[in-house]
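S.,

Sequence below, as promised.
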Amino acid sequence: MSATLGALIKQLQPDWTITIFERLSDVARESSNPWNNAGTGHSALCELNYTPEKPDGTIEISSAVKVNEQFQISRQFWAHLVAQGLMPDPQAFINPVPHMSFVWGEANVVYLRKRFEALKDHPLFAGMEYSEDAAVIRKWAPAMIDGRLKSEKIAATKIDSGTDIDFGALTNGLFDYITDNGADLRTEHTVTGLRQQPDGSWRIRLKQEVGMTRVDVSARFVFVGAGGGALRLLQKSGIPEARGFGGFPVSGQFLRTDNPELVARHQAKAYGKAAVGSPPMSVPHLDTRIVDGKASLMFGPYAGFSPKFLKTGSWLDLVASVRPHNLLPMLAVGRDNLDLTWYLVKQVLASRHAKFAALTEFMPNAKPEDWYEITAGQRVQVIKKDDKKGGVLQFGTEVVTSADGTIAGLLGASPGASTAVPIMLTVLERCFPEHIAGWTPTIKKMIPSYGKALAENAVLARKTIASTKKALAIT
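The prediction came back faster than expected:
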């Protein structure tokens, strides 16, 4: 998120001075690291949680359309940077990988069939295929059919315009661009305090990890893009807009294989349906990953729990985030989400055998010796104050900005980096409203669909998807 915002500002206002402070020895070591996330170009092509079934049996597609629109904005910006030679090798961060939805059981097959009918004629979902024929699905993803009972009711959709993204490589590429053009990146610097000065600027206190030197800097605008660490920093700032927010950390684990024979038999991102009562973040998926030019498979997620807000965080992060103003919302969420608590308990206590059994529902012939466990990044779900319930748990993202627009931060986890560009455009619109009119012509050059709805313009949608596909070498 910080890299995206920096790149946008470099394009829009190249004379502004940008300094980035990173606590670790390099950027993209936490959530942006490719093995700390699923790498899905989240565009709702296959993620079933974006298309819930309503009580009347129809499929709600508004969330899917919104996420897809957001992803197309991100793709346009990346394509612009590539076309300008500022991100020279798109295959270093984005690669074509078909997106599939895969379900079993009569009720789920009926649901997927209705979902396909609701999406197939939409311009943002053009090219989606559907089948209940095992022979057809075998051609799409043989490893999901080998060893499966012929009597089992299954169904799948496939769309070839899906992508796998190495968000670590993307983040590094964006930072290379902005630092090559004057931005100052200082690693191993930890922010220990934020205080607004009488003139509206911010005084930022930092600790340099090497030598433990204390540093103070000032800034007219501050963006807090610290992933799970953003909540504590926003609290330190003292802005009233951060009051009432809490966070609930959830860790994740995946099974991974690098066996080339297995990888060759599954070249897709296949998302299933979350079990009844489980949260959206638990949707199981079997993914092709392409990192540093090498393909692997990853299956999960298996939820875990750690009180840390970052993988490299403190065991006291959760406790230290509790304030008088967010205590009641956090307690209310705990009261109203006992099913989520029980789900996490079962996941934490699940044996390796139980975890592997979940994989065999996707890949019946999977063998334990081919797979090993990896721990993904920490996700801190947003807890918000709510007048009716006291507090609600939010699974999306939340942009927090001060009333005067001098500081902004991002809380939450999903759909994450895929929608970084539209989210950062929101930050710019909120924090620099006086500049937006002057910036708009440049924004439209970078993002031709800016201010328009692709979902309402089939011709523009086709043109946009085709042009970004060509620019990003997605063949």
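The longest strand covers residues 246-257.

Coffee later?
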